[in-house]
Amino acid sequence: MNQNADFDRIAQSWLQDGPTELPDRSLQAALDEVHMTSQRRFGAARRTFNMNGNAFRLAAAAVVALSIIVVGGIYLGNSQSGGIGGQPTPTPTPIPTPSASLAPPAMLKDAPYVACSPGGAPNCLAPGTYRLTGDVWPGEITMEVPAGWFEWQPYTWNDAFDGLLVDAGTDNGSGWGFQFIGVGVVAKDPCDPAKGTYDPAETRNVDGLVAAMSRWPGFEATAPTPTVVGGYSGQLIELTSTLTDTDCPNQSLWTIPQGGVVDAYPMVGSRGPAARPGTFSIIEVNGTLLVLRTTDFPDTSPNELANGIPDDPTRHAADQVAMQQILDSIRITTAPAQP
Amino acid sequence: VDRSLVLAARSGDEEAFGSLARGSADRLFAVAHRILRDVDRAEDAVQQTLVTAWRELPGLREVERFDAWLHRILVHACYAEARRARNWTANVRVLPADGPASRDTTQDVVDRDTLDRGFRRLPPEQRAIFVFHHYLGLTLGEIADTLDVPLGTVKSRLHYATNTLRAALEADARTVTPSSRERMA
Prior knowledge:
The complex is a heterodimer of chains A (339) and B (185). Chain A is an alpha+beta fold. Chain A contains six helices and 16 strands. The longest helix of chain A is centred in the first third of the chain and has 25 residues, at 53-77. In chain B, helix 7 (140-147) packs across helix 8. The termini of chain B are far apart. At the A-B interface, helix 1, helix 2, helix 3 and strand 6 of A face helix 2, helix 3, helix 4, helix 5 and helix 6 of B.
């Protein structure tokens, strides 16, 4: 079962198996309920369901662009070097809270989409300043996004596992970019769930998580080095592995707080031995861990290789520059302390 | 879809809506069952979908997109059903002896059972994308348009669902002993 076609055949065959007719009693119950339900009437200014999401996004882009012109200057004015590999700063730099009269940058999940290339489908984020926030983030993350990137959001809980990938023109994503990831329970062995997980007390700070990651069997970790993300100091480690997904089928580095699994990409390559280093910047914001995972290599990604894109040692060289600019633009702000 | 029926139903014609419902119910149920893997919940999701569709129909501007609109309501009904349940059912599905697959070998039966178990572990958002792509045959762009989510989100959810299920199949294949593999060949 190593071919895409085999998997598709098996999956489609499996999905064909199952009931396909709604029982009459069930349909009648629904129609009885309909009979007792009034339609929502909207009058002259009625709400409409606009099914053309892309048109909506394009229209929204104009509104957001105006906001960006106004607000972006404030954030750009506060830019400072501080991405991966940058010099650590001794203390977080507080970011001024925008005036209540100015609209904040759009949420990433609400961002407008535009064509990745002229005449293409609207598959890329409109360049601009966006933010991530939510219940589990230790603050609000703001970043400046250039052209050619799109949101990679594996779970609907977009506030605990969210990032950007560069567009590769493929249907299955490029597998090249970065993600912010919350930390729940950390595996003792990412490839063997039977070995259990660490006591959360051991991995709830930067040093504890770095130590746990450095002990993962089958992975080689560099010595941690200081780094800064969004004004917060932490540690950076790079992990490599010679394992393949055949050796490590149930990849789980850790779970995010809501329960989703963080896989071992790109160290354990997607279907084959084409693994690449994974770079992890681990910071602590207001007592909560935040991990930034990046694919900081110029080569064709394992995901692209698995999708038939030829290996090219410089395919993402320019993307590395763009990603560093995004990372340098990241700002993390926290809610003011309660009185 | 019959545009005149949608227009009539949108104007409050219950009989026209009944015709639309009867024409869509089986397809909605089939999709809901494949997402939820449970007959009762799938029935509930379809009923909720039809009632919601009737209530909100006056707000549908593009009547020719009625089917896509209905699918979007169905998916959200499935999400609600999934979250309403405390746990996904863990009962083992009884496989039909004469399934529709033409190549219904023992290995296929094992694969389907593995897929079923793996699929139940996926979040409903990934399930929906997987079903829309592999069961309804929609392209990723069509799914993004139907569900009104960014294409990147569709890609990522399909990617994670596919990787999870593929890994489950491959792990299952490795647990089969050489002798049993030979028997299955």
